[in-house]
Amino acid sequence: ELLEVGGQRVGADVEAFNPVFDVTPADLIDAIVTEKGIVERPDTARMAQLMSRKHLH
């Protein structure tokens, strides 16, 4: 939940359910698209290779 930003409470006595992120099961991900390129069938090795690129695309 995101109820505070920069040390400031978003609202007094506010109750909320606001997930900041979700988790998608890995077997449902076919590709990840980033500024550095596309990784098909992403795994640790493929993601590391992509992130080690110095240039975009």
TrEMBL record:
| UniProt-listed InterPro entries | IF-2B-related, IF_2B-like_C, NagB/RpiA_transferase-like
What molecular function terms (GO) are annotated for this protein?
S-methyl-5-thioribose-1-phosphate isomerase activity
* Keyword flag Signal: no
Give the top-rank taxon of the lineage listed in the UniProt record for this protein.
Answer: Bacteria
Write the record's keywords in alphabetical order, separated by commas. Answer: Isomerase
Concerning its family, UniProt says: Belongs to the eIF-2B alpha/beta/delta subunits family.
Q: Which organism is it from?
A: Pseudomonas syringae pv. actinidiae ICMP 19096
Under which EC number(s) is this enzyme classified? 5.3.1.23
Q: Which Gene3D superfamilies match?
A: Translation initiation factor eif-2b, domain 2 (3.40.50.10470)
Quote the protein name from its UniProt record: Methylthioribose-1-phosphate isomerase
Leader sequence segment:
none
The protein's gene is named: mtnA
| Enzyme class, first EC level, given as a word | isomerase
Q: Name one Pfam family in it.
A: IF-2B
